[in-house]
Write a structure and sequence with these properties.
Blueprint (H helix, E strand, L loop, with lengths): L1 E2 L15 E2 L17 E9 L6 E11 L4 H10 L14 H18 L6 H16 L3 E3 L1 H6 L11 E3 L6 H16 L3 E5 L19 H14 L1 E2 L4 E2 L2 E6 L5 H20 L19 E7 L1 H9 L2 E5 L6 E6 H15 L3 E4 H6 L24 E9 L12 H21 L5 H10 L2 E6 L1 H7 L7 H29 L5 H20 L6 H24 L14 H5 L14 E5 L5 E5 L2 H8 L4 H14 L27 H11 L10 E4 L5 H13 L4 E6 L7 H14 L20 E8 L2 E9 L5 E8 L5 H18 L4 H8 L8 E5 L2 E4 L2 H13 L2 H7 L4 H13 L9 H5 L5 H10 L3 H9 L16 E3 L2 E3 L11
Parallel strand pairs: 6-7, 7-10, 10-11, 11-14, 15-16, 19-20
Antiparallel strand pairs: 1-2, 3-4, 5-15, 6-15, 8-9, 12-13, 14-20, 17-18, 21-22, 22-23, 24-25, 26-27
Helix pairs in contact: 2-3, 2-11, 3-11, 5-6, 7-9, 8-9, 9-21, 11-14, 13-18, 14-16, 14-20, 15-16, 18-19, 24-25
């Protein structure tokens, strides 16, 4: 695609002749649809918890190479028309044509193309790229473009609120309209005066935190998009606001409330019946810090909190202590995140038109108040050639097509408010990004947390944004620069030079990086030269979004900037059913690392059984890091995520949607370190999530319901726990035990229809503190069991606890215990839990462990003394692999089975499967629903 505009001296009249579009992916005389084989499929999507059908459409048409998952998601989410009616779309051709033809028609009307033939080539190229999953527009495009609905193309919005009641009530209204349309919004509340300031009437102001309650209730009431998910929103407060300490503690205090209510028997899971009584749960909270504050933290100095109306300091606080409170709250409940105001505004292309004060809910879009951004993401793995090199030139051409289409969309787009529409048309903010970075790095033999991986990611990101701005400058010469450019020309050019300088500073490690950076360097140079003459068409070009639903549409292994979630994957099959597979990126990576086919086959087989590469046959330990993932045996360290963000941030116009996952063992100091390093490394925003820091454990809902099916055959109301008392006469057993020399007794009573109902532990002398504590502990466990808490939940919590007495036991099945509680609950598991549940927890009898060893020694053949049924059910065998896969309904659940523990993630409210992280949001690979705004 080339520019055919002629330009004279500065200020001279331009001959705007439009773009001459050259074929890249397509063949002249052959329509893209005629190049692929199509097939008819039936889409029937069910809720696995109750078997109900969520969606059904039969006879839909898709290319044979599209996965079942992508087919299901596109059919259920993006096809328009009433289900069952003749007007309902039933082919991917109809969907792509509806969108692409609308773009091309608008481009023609607004003078983007030199001739009609160029418009046709552009149409074919876009069609080919979408058909072959090279890129995708964000969801609102598929929802709205080419329909009778409003042509809303943006997923991300930033609002504004001032210090008066009219503005505050208007904020509630505007958020509601955006949520209703299926998108998310963010805003900064720092203009609202604090609760420490006076009103003009003489009373005391309520403060922004109080007004957050009303907005939170509104967001919780309006389901985003009308049905699929709750609203997504971001609330930001500046660190110098006098109410900042209250803001920081807001969600942490609510998390304490959740714990108390949960312990009292209320259903406080993420989708529980009683969670609605808790406030502030519908927003992501972030504190906006500036360099002044961070330097005060670094030096241990004081920092002033300023009145909103006068700007005077009304209170001085210890900066380090305030920063610690942020880390403490984030450690407790994952909020607040942090946004680095000085860095954000230092890279602002339009400072003369206003500061950047807020972001969208996922933190990737940052620009002026009352603005929006439409997104599109490229599938990076599509540009990896068979020889392992990245096709930089093809990537440049793809970026040109995508960024041109994105800019055209602003010409015909509708917006939820007049103010947002006005700002967006004046500044034309775009958000091109990518998916599958994690898969690309693995496929090329790079560890995610490595200098080589970061160099490759930085070079690709620089090339993407450099090409986007170069094309934007060319478009400015054809259809004009954005309206706000003249006022911000100097600042915009300064930011372009900063990007180019960062590109020059990339430390290349491999021939791939060198080749890509060289192309990027030329793109930045050309873009700056053309922009100096024409200006730029867009105030912003790129962001890194979560790519949740569209990532599934493109059959991506990884979303946005994220590493691979896991090495094993849950795959749906044509005609129904599912299977566990090892990610296709793994054999490609092994090939790139020099392994032979026989070695690759053995390693893949090992991964399919274990879910990780540790001790895989023939795999060299120095290559383990290439296969490190977000979860699993070798999960990437938190600082590794931060370093990757820092590597690509200088080449992103906006910011990056990403949550840094931290283990449950992480400390408050670890969170402080991550937040501080984010500032030092030049990030714009950062959020963390510590495993198990929130009470809502969605997977436990399913487990509790399974346990109740065993322990409570009568029908109960799920949201109101009912105690099932033991009968007067019940079966029981008493066990004497020794742990580390300490002797004790365990009495366990059962229901007549089976199922543990009470325990009593005798340890220590009667009347001693230890004996009293064990009596109280036994009573609390017994009451919990009678209220339906599954035994496996207690086993998972108390096994492996470490404290004295510990050591050798006199139990042949449990030879060593790390504490008395570790021994007791592992013994209870052996006595009362079925094998399948114990296998997930990693608890086996001595006989079962012997059978496993013999099974692995004898392969398929087993000695007569070993029970064949037991062998078939061992976790090492293929049969258990199938059982585990059938018990899972998503990759996240599959990894839970491999890990033997439940990872934090919400259940999808549409289909009930466990979601997996996508940036700072979650996405369901079963039906495509997301918890955020992408």
């Amino acid at each position: 695609m080339t520019e055919t505009v002629t330009t004279g001296s500065k200020g001279a009249k331009r001959d705007k002749r439009g773009l001459t579009v050259e074929r890249v992916f397509t063949t002249e005389g052959v329509h893209p649809y005629d190049e692929v084989k199509w097939e008819q499929r039936d889409v029937v999507m069910t809720n696995w918890r109750d078997g109900s059908v969520n969606f059904e459409q039969r006879g839909v048409e898709f290319p044979e190479f599209w996965s079942v998952n992508a087919t299901n998601i596109v059919t259920s989410k993006y096809f328009r028309g009433a289900v069952g009616s003749p007007q309902r779309e039933n082919s991917l051709k109809q969907l792509i044509d509806r969108v692409v033809k609308t773009y091309v028609r608008a481009g023609t009307e607004h003078g983007y193309f030199a001739t009609g033939a160029d418009a046709e080539v552009f149409e074919h190229e876009l069609t080919w790229m979408l058909l072959h999953q090279v890129f995708s527009f964000n969801s609102p495009v598929w929802f709205n473009v080419g329909t009778t609905s409003k042509q809303q193309v943006s997923a991300c919005f930033i609002l504004a609120v001032d210090d008066n009641m009219d503005s505050i009530l208007n904020w509630y209204k505007e958020e509601g309209l955006i949520f209703k349309g299926g998108s998310g919004a963010g805003l900064n509340l720092s203009r609202i005066r604090s609760s420490k300031e006076l009103l003009s009437s003489g009373g005391t102001a309520s403060g922004p935190v109080s007004f957050m309650r009303g907005a939170d209730a509104s967001a919780g009431t309006i389901k985003s998009g009308g049905a699929t998910r709750r609203a997504a929103k971001m609330v930001v407060l500046d660190v110098d606001h006098p109410d900042i300490e209250e803001f920081i503690a807001t969600k942490a205090r609510e998390e304490e409330k959740i714990k108390v209510l949960r312990d009292a028997g209320f259903d406080m899971d993420l989708s529980g019946a009683d969670i609605h009584s808790v406030q502030y749960q519908n927003a992501n909270n972030s504190v906006r810090v500036n360099d002044e504050f961070m330097r005060a933290v670094e030096s241990g100095g004081e920092f002033g909190l300023r009145a909103r109306l006068t700007g005077e300091v009304i209170e001085s606080v210890d900066a380090k202590k305030l920063f610690r409170s942020m880390a403490q709250a984030a450690w407790e409940c994952a909020d607040p995140g942090i946004q680095y105001d000085s860095t954000i505004n230092d890279w602002h292309t339009c400072p003369e038109s206003g500061r950047i004060t807020a972001s969208n809910p996922c933190s990737e879009y940052m620009h002026l108040d009352n603005s929006s951004c439409n997104l599109a993401s490229l599938n990076l793995l599509k540009f990896l050639k068979d020889d392992g090199s990245f096709d930089a030139q093809l990537f440049v051409k793809a970026v040109e097509f995508v960024i041109t289409a994105m800019d055209i969309s602003i010409c015909f787009a509708d917006f939820p408010t007049e103010a947002i529409g006005d700002t967006t048309r004046k500044f034309r903010q775009l958000g091109i990004g990518y998916a599958n970075l994690g898969a690309l790095l693995m496929a090329t033999g790079h560890a995610y947390d490595s200098d080589g991986g970061r160099a490759l990611a930085a070079a690709i990101t620089s090339l993407m944004t450099g090409t986007s701005y170069r094309r934007s400058a060319e478009l400015a010469g054809i259809v004009g620069a954005y309206e706000g450019y003249t006022r911000n020309a100097e600042a915009h050019q300064r930011v372009m030079r900063k990007h180019a300088a960062a590109n020059d500073a990339i430390r290349t490690m491999h021939s791939n990086d060198v080749a890509i950076r060289d192309v990027a360097t030329r793109e930045w140079q050309r873009g700056i030269e053309i922009g100096a003459r024409n200006g730029w068409r867009n105030a912003q070009a790129s962001v890194l979004a979560p790519t949740g639903t569209i990532g599934f549409m493109m059959d991506c292994d990884t979303t946005g900037i994220e590493p691979d979630f896991s090495l094993v994957k849950f795959k749906k099959l044509v005609g129904g059913g599912s299977m566990q597979i090892v990610n296709q990126t793994v054999p490609r990576a092994l090939k790139a690392l020099g392994y032979q086919d026989e070695q690759i086959e053995a390693i893949v087989e090992y991964i399919s059984q274990h879910g990780h590469v540790v001790d895989a046959p023939g795999l060299r330990p120095e290559h383990y890091e290439v296969f490190d993932c977000a979860v699993g045996e070798r999960s990437i360290a938190p600082i590794g995520h931060v370093r990757m963000m820092a590597a690509v941030q200088p080449f992103i116009s906006g910011a990056i949607s990403k949550t840094v996952n931290m283990p449950e063992s992480a400390t408050v100091e670890d969170v402080e370190h991550i937040y501080f390093e984010g500032w030092k490394l030049g990030l714009k925003a950062l959020a963390i999530y510590r495993d198990n820091c929130k009470v809502g454990q969605p997977l436990s809902t399913a487990k509790k319901s399974e346990a109740k099916a065993v322990a409570e055959p009568e029908k109960v109301v799920e949201y109101k726990p009912v105690r099932k008392r033991l009968p007067k006469k019940r079966p029981s057993q008493t066990l004497s035990f020794t742990v580390g020399g300490a002797e004790g007794y365990l009495h366990a009573g059962s229901y007549p229809d089976d199922g543990l109902g009470e325990i009593f532990v005798k340890l220590g002398k009667q009347g001693s503190t230890l004996a009293g504590v064990m009596d109280a502990f036994s009573m609390s466990i017994s009451v919990g069991l009678q209220y339906g808490i599954p035994l496996e939940f207690y086993v998972s919590k108390f096994s492996n606890l470490r404290f004295e007495p510990a050591g050798m036991t006199d139990d042949p099945d449990i030879r060593i215990a790390t504490s008395v509680l570790d021994y007791l609950f592992r013994r209870l598991a052996l006595d009362y839990l079925p094998y399948e549940k114990r296998a997930q927890l990693g608890i086996f009898t001595a006989e079962e462990r012997t059978a496993q060893v013999e099974a692995s020694d004898y392969g398929a053949a087993a000695p007569d003394s070993v029970d064949l049924e037991e062998l078939r059910s061992t976790v090492e065998s293929k049969q258990q692999e199938v059982v585990e896969t059938q018990a899972a309904h998503s990759t996240a659940e599959l990894m839970d089975l491999h890990l033997g523990k439940a990872n934090d993630a919400p259940l999808c409210m549409t289909c009930g499967t466990k979601m997996r992280p996508a940036g700072s949001c979650y996405a369901c690979e079963g039906c495509g629903a997301t918890s955020g705004c992408s």
